[in-house]
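Usage

Read records sequentially. Each one opens with the input sequence:
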Amino acid sequence: MVTNESILLPVFALALWTVVMLAWTLITRIPAINAQGGVGGFGHPPDMAKLPVHVRRIADNHNHLYEQPTIFYAVCLAIAVLGHATETLVLLAWAFVAARVVHSLVQALINVVLVRFAVFLVAWAALLGMIGIECQQIL
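and closes with the structure output:
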């Protein structure tokens, strides 16, 4: 049975995944910075180009989790507050979260841009579906 709280479970799942990506960023970035002589030479974003590509990709993905997902968070909260949660909306929310996790793994591990872009589009499709359904509910 779907409740209005059901739409919040994917929100917390994605928030937790963002914490996982933060941890992964720290676990890879700190040793890489230390290998380059410490934090003294890393005061500005352009300095990060000195780090290995695989380290930068993980950090880049962590940053990406503060972009598109912010719209997702707002949409899910609006759905919950308005009491409009449905099975379809919850399924689309989980599809969005799954796509974002896959996007993170693709970017961090293999970074095949066409695959990453396809997964990004899947996430957008789920999010746009949610927005469209909720707009119909409101109007």
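Summary fields computed downstream for this record:
- The longest helix spans residues 8-35.
- The mean pLDDT is 94.
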